[in-house]
Specification:
The protein is built from three helices and four strands; from the N terminus they run ββαββαα. The protein is about 25% helix and about 25% strand. The chain has a four-stranded antiparallel sheet with strand order 2-1-3-4, covered by helices on one side. It has about 120 residues and is of the alpha+beta class. The chain has helices at about 40-50, 90-100, 105-115, and strands at about 5-10, 15-25, 55-60, 65.
């Protein structure tokens, strides 16, 4: 099971946000978190990604505890409010991300995606 959360508890001061959350995700499974503001959706994701330390429980990702770097090496996360570095143009930023993922920047693939998404090449400059 690639993702397994067992009896996760997280509180902020006196406010309990996650109260014994348990879930498991199988390979290829699609999962959606839905809830009202303050329900704990973001807190759960932040605990999964080790941005927040849980108070109790266990999170395993690919059989590693979520606070271990190896658990997150095959994950991607795009925050709600993302601003790429202002000093990089589009092509430089994509090249930077490719390097982080230990892959090569492919202009052919980038052009294919731009066309598929109906985006102008000017976004790279």
């Amino acid at each position: 099971m690639p993702v397994k959360v067992t009896q996760l508890i997280k509180s902020y001061k006196t406010h309990d946000v996650l109260k014994g959350v348990s879930l498991g995700l199988e390979s290829g499974e699609v999962f959606c978190l839905v809830g009202v503001n303050g329900a704990g959706k973001t807190t759960l994701l932040k605990c999964l990604l080790a941005f927040h330390k849980d108070d109790q429980g266990e999170i395993k990702i690919f059989n590693f505890l979520s606070d271990k770097k190896d658990s997150r090496k095959n994950l991607a996360y795009l925050p709600e409010r993302f601003l790429p570095p202002h000093y990089l143009n589009g092509a430089q930023f994509l090249n930077y991300i490719a390097n982080l993922h230990r892959t090569k920047f492919s202009e052919t693939e980038i052009n294919y995606m731009l066309e598929a998404l109906d985006l102008k090449k000017e976004i790279l400059t």
